[in-house]
Amino acid sequence: MALLILANTELRICTACGEPIADKYLFDIDGCAWHGSCLRCTVCLTLLERQPSCYFRDRQVYCRTDYVK
Protein backbone atom coordinates (compact mmCIF):
# COMPACT_ATOMS: atom_id res chain seq x y z
CA MET A 1 0.00 0.00 0.00
CA ALA A 2 1.27 3.44 -0.84
CA LEU A 3 0.43 6.59 1.10
CA LEU A 4 1.21 9.69 -0.91
CA ILE A 5 0.82 13.28 0.14
CA LEU A 6 0.26 15.15 -3.08
CA ALA A 7 0.00 18.79 -4.03
CA ASN A 8 -3.62 19.18 -5.04
CA THR A 9 -3.52 20.14 -8.71
CA GLU A 10 -6.77 18.50 -9.78
CA LEU A 11 -10.23 18.27 -8.27
CA ARG A 12 -10.62 14.97 -6.45
CA ILE A 13 -13.44 13.67 -4.28
CA CYS A 14 -12.74 12.52 -0.72
CA THR A 15 -13.36 8.81 -0.23
CA ALA A 16 -14.60 9.35 3.34
CA CYS A 17 -16.97 12.31 3.06
CA GLY A 18 -17.70 12.51 -0.68
CA GLU A 19 -16.87 16.23 -0.83
CA PRO A 20 -14.39 17.82 -3.27
CA ILE A 21 -10.89 18.28 -1.90
CA ALA A 22 -9.90 21.94 -2.25
CA ASP A 23 -7.06 21.71 0.32
CA LYS A 24 -3.51 22.49 -0.76
CA TYR A 25 -2.56 18.84 -0.15
CA LEU A 26 -4.47 15.58 -0.27
CA PHE A 27 -3.71 12.06 0.84
CA ASP A 28 -3.76 9.36 -1.83
CA ILE A 29 -3.98 5.77 -0.63
CA ASP A 30 -4.11 3.15 -3.38
CA GLY A 31 -5.80 5.61 -5.72
CA CYS A 32 -8.36 6.86 -3.18
CA ALA A 33 -8.15 10.53 -2.16
CA TRP A 34 -8.73 11.83 1.39
CA HIS A 35 -8.91 15.18 3.18
CA GLY A 36 -6.36 15.19 6.01
CA SER A 37 -9.18 15.72 8.50
CA CYS A 38 -11.10 12.72 7.09
CA LEU A 39 -8.18 10.29 7.24
CA ARG A 40 -9.16 8.40 10.41
CA CYS A 41 -8.93 4.80 11.56
CA THR A 42 -12.17 2.99 10.78
CA VAL A 43 -12.19 1.29 14.20
CA CYS A 44 -10.88 3.79 16.79
CA LEU A 45 -11.29 7.01 14.76
CA THR A 46 -7.71 8.14 15.45
CA LEU A 47 -6.68 10.94 13.11
CA LEU A 48 -4.02 9.48 10.81
CA GLU A 49 -2.83 12.52 8.85
CA ARG A 50 0.19 12.97 11.14
CA GLN A 51 0.91 9.30 11.77
CA PRO A 52 3.98 7.73 10.12
CA SER A 53 1.83 5.07 8.47
CA CYS A 54 -1.66 3.75 7.99
CA TYR A 55 -3.10 0.54 6.60
CA PHE A 56 -5.72 0.01 3.93
CA ARG A 57 -7.97 -3.01 3.37
CA ASP A 58 -11.31 -3.24 1.52
CA ARG A 59 -11.41 0.57 1.04
CA GLN A 60 -11.13 1.04 4.82
CA VAL A 61 -8.25 2.80 6.59
CA TYR A 62 -6.77 1.51 9.86
CA CYS A 63 -4.14 2.53 12.38
CA ARG A 64 -1.43 -0.06 12.93
CA THR A 65 -2.96 -1.36 16.17
CA ASP A 66 -6.39 -2.03 14.69
CA TYR A 67 -5.03 -3.44 11.43
CA VAL A 68 -3.15 -6.23 13.18
CA LYS A 69 -6.15 -7.27 15.32
UniProtKB/TrEMBL annotation:
Q: What is its main location?
A: nucleus
In alphabetical order, the GO MF annotations are: DNA-binding transcription factor activity, RNA polymerase II-specific; metal ion binding; RNA polymerase II transcription regulatory region sequence-specific DNA binding
Q: Name one GO biological process term.
A: neuron differentiation
Keyword Zinc found: yes
SUPFAM superfamilies linked to this entry: Glucocorticoid receptor-like (DNA-binding domain) (SSF57716)
InterPro entries membership: LIM_Homeobox_TF, Znf_LIM
**Which intervals hold domain LIM zinc-binding?**
12-69
Q: Is Isomerase given among the entry's keywords?
A: no
Keywords, alphabetical:
DNA-binding, Homeobox, LIM domain, Metal-binding, Nucleus, Repeat, Zinc
Q: Which Pfam families match?
A: LIM
Matching Gene3D superfamilies: Cysteine Rich Protein
Query: Could you name the domain of life of the organism this protein comes from?
Result: Eukaryota
List localization entries.
Nucleus
Name the GO cellular-component terms: nucleus
Quote the PANTHER family the UniProt record gives.
LIM/HOMEOBOX PROTEIN LHX, LIM_HOMEOBOX PROTEIN AWH
Q: What is this protein called?
A: LIM zinc-binding domain-containing protein
Q: Which organism is it from?
A: Anopheles dirus
